[in-house]
């Protein structure tokens, strides 16, 4: 039983890793204190069949604060401009580290790949 579970876990990790989706972001014109516009984001390796990108932001220094995220219809774009979706922007009392994650979803809502990136603000 352990061998089967270990094999299944390794196969799942290989599938996720082989997707190769990556993302990055810069704060760009993001203003401090609840700027509702997402920062500029770049994407690569988004898998075929992706219809929607679902984003979420976490403040790693205050993880209980809910920033939320948003969704964007995917049509092959590599760059998402400032304000592509709305969320609750950064408002730290001192520099904090934020992580934005993205899930590539097919038409049925199944996650095909995930990626994340971190940046300090301000």
UniProtKB/TrEMBL annotation:
Species in which this protein is naturally found: Mesorhizobium shangrilense
Superkingdom of origin: Bacteria
Name of the molecule in the record: YbhB/YbcL family Raf kinase inhibitor-like protein
Signal peptide location: 1-19
Entry keyword set: Protein kinase inhibitor, Signal
A GO molecular-function annotation: protein kinase inhibitor activity
């Amino acid at each position: 039983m352990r061998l089967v579970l270990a094999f299944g876990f390794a196969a799942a990790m290989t599938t996720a890793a082989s997707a190769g989706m990556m993302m990055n972001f810069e704060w760009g014109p993001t203003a401090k204190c609840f700027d509702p516009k997402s920062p500029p984001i770049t994407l690569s390796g988004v898998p075929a069949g992706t219809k929607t990108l679902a984003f979420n932001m976490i403040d790693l220094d205050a993880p209980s604060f809910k920033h939320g995220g948003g969704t964007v219809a995917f049509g092959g774009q590599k760059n998402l401009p400032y304000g592509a979706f709305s969320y609750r922007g950064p408002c730290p009392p001192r520099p904090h580290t934020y992580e934005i994650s993205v899930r590539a979803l097919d038409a049925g809502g199944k996650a095909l790949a995930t990626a994340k990136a971190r940046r300090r603000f301000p």
